[in-house]
Amino acid sequence: MKNFENKAQLSTYISSLKDNGTSIGFVPTMGALHHGHLALVNQGLGENDIVVVSIFVNPTQFDNKEDLVKYPRTLDADMALLKTISHDRIIVYAPTDKDIYGDNIQSQSFTFDGLEHEMEGAFRPGHFDGVGTIIKRLFEIVTPDTAYFGEKDFQQLQIIRKLVELHHLPVKIVGCPIHRADDGLAMSSRNARLTPKHREAAPVIYKTLQTAKEKFGTKSATKVTEWVIEQFKNEPLLELEYFLIADVKTLKPVKRKSSDSYREKKAYRAFIAVYAGDIRLIDNIALN
Ligand code: PAF
Question: I need a labelling partner for 218 at 20 to 30 A (CA). Which of 38, 99, 210, 273 fits?
Fold first, then answer.
């Protein structure tokens, strides 16, 4: 499996592939790979000749320094896992901070038609500037035909779609379904840092989303939100940061369904962020 640390060498190699008509899929990651990532890579391999997987813990998207320091870094295990899928059709790009940022580890500032102010944007200041900066840079280096992102970070996915639209980037964005453990917990690199008792408590997050979805059939978003807040009062190991129901296009919270959401083609999702000890977990579910 080819592994690059240097962007110039990677770009030269990719342009030689593209000259021969090779199609390039791209899965950007921060490493600590799990089955959710592998599903993205597999989808990419099904639709492209080659898949580039970047493994880079991007410092500019962390609003919390401690989270950045403690973020799992498991490059050897990640490479071994990727090799179980393909030896010759995956290229890994695992750069240093310097290769990406030079001597200036700073994000650019972006606007994404207001999507950046909701949810994660409100609770993690600067996060989406960091995501926009790294994704734009990686797209310039990798020049993929198609890039794959998980729906677990649904707001990130919508923001990257907006980045591509606003900056006219020549890449197709594909969103892929959330992968879950057998007990429903959404797969995340952060799960590895949960203590056993927090790991045991965490499936309540998805169970609550499922019941919220059922309740949204007959109740307003406001009522469903009140119900969710009450549920988490009974969970001593989990602290609810936010729960809300939002329009999938604007990501703006709604109080109730539009009376004619079918004709207006409105789709809603419920979004949740919860602290399990000092680990922050997010999840979401489509409601219609
Ligand atoms: O979702 C992630 O792992 C990161 O936000 C991403 C897209 C790789 C950018 O650093």
Answer: 273
